[in-house]
Design goal:
The protein has a single domain, classed as Vaccinia Virus protein VP39 (Rossmann fold). Helix content is 30%, strand content 31%. A hairpin with a 7-residue loop joins β1 and β2. The longest helix is centred in the last third of the chain and has 15 residues.
Amino acid sequence: MSWLRKSSRHPEITVSEEDCVRYLHLGGDHIQSAMRMDAPDDLELDYTRTMMAFLLFHPRPRDCLMVGLGGGSIPKFIFRRLPGVRTRVVELNPAVITAARGLFHVPNDSSRLRIELGDGASAVHSMKAGCDLLFVDGFDDGDQVPALVSDEFYAAAFEALRAPGVLVVNFFGHDRRFDRYLQRIEKAFGDCTISLNAREDGNVIVFALKGGPASIRWDDLRRSAERLEHKLGLPFPGYVSGLRKMNRWSRQALLIAPDAA
């Protein structure tokens, strides 16, 4: 099965299906989103599951702004599994919204989920302390969208968040510019960042905290992980173990703020 939508202003959209999994591609062969047909509300791709590890650091979000819709995996998951969260998604490409609604089972707008046609970068720049959870996942055939990786954008992301709040950004682990992008996020968020490998997909998820804790004890993280795994069915204990790879830590705690010890 294949569905194609061309546009003079936006990347080409292709929807393919294999082994009962439906895929969304933007601008080329790279997989933007995936949905298992017999479990449409689950998170099929490892990087989307790993993005939900933000709950280890910000367990009670209320208002989420999401830049980029893709196939809608994360907004669907939040809508179904985190009923206390209100989510606003801003998507630049109308064909993506059409595909997400028609082919990826994204729910209709409601008091807890709203999808808008618009420029996500502009939405972030215009928001001041309007959300406590901000997802950024913007690619064009495997390349980061320049407007979503600039110093100015990350500074605006910091201002858009209330405290406590968290920015969640998806990167390709092999991107040679990753260190440069991470430094920009660290600059905007006072070095309060956490990185986590999405091992199956090769992505790296960055969590940037505004007004969060300077450190979190490993015992507390493990207890939270067990509760979240039971609630959401995602491998949170594995995420806790993975935090030791790319971050500062001691035997007692994950160190987040630069002066944490």
